[in-house]
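Re: export button greyed out
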Amino acid sequence: MQLYLSIKAIHVGAASLSIALFCVRLYWSVRGMAVLQQRWVRTVPHVIDTLLLAAGIGLMLMLRAWPQQQPWLAAKLVGLLIYIALGSVAIKRGTTPARRLLAGALAIGVFALIVGAARMHSPWSWWGA
Ligand code: HEM
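Workaround output, generated via the alternate export path:
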């Protein structure tokens, strides 16, 4: 139980760091600031997101809960893919500041939905029973 709670704390901590760093990078991206090209700014988010995913998979294994049986877990995995794709448009691929801002705002919205799915154990996120 103690191990489970520690991994959960790592998972939630990595999720918090991920969204905090994303918001800062989104600001830099929309303003077109060069700091975004620094090596640490490009690598640290990957380390945090890998930790987030690894801890999530660890929790899943310890709970013996699988995405095929638990729709809220499947929703989180799909949500994570959408968050990553939108994030890449927001930080890298978006061709204008307005597009990067829109993709960033959508990514933050998807992140909030993923947290809702985690809290409510429902694919309907915050609206789940
Ligand atoms: C951006 C992506 C993610 C975010 C923001 C996120 C967020 C969270 C949060 C806030 C919790 C704690 C919920 C609570 O207080 O009860 C949690 C728990 C959990 N997450 Fe994630 N998560 C993400 C991705 C994932 C992924 C990809 C997986 C599976 C591979 C996963 C599996 C789990 C599991 C199994 C729990 C434990 C639920 C429980 O103990 O009741 N998460 N997540």
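Residues 8, 11-12, 15, 52-53, 56-57, 59-60, 63, 73, 76-77, 80, 83, 111, 114-115, 118-119 surround protoporphyrin IX containing FE (CB under 6 Å). The button fix ships in the next patch.
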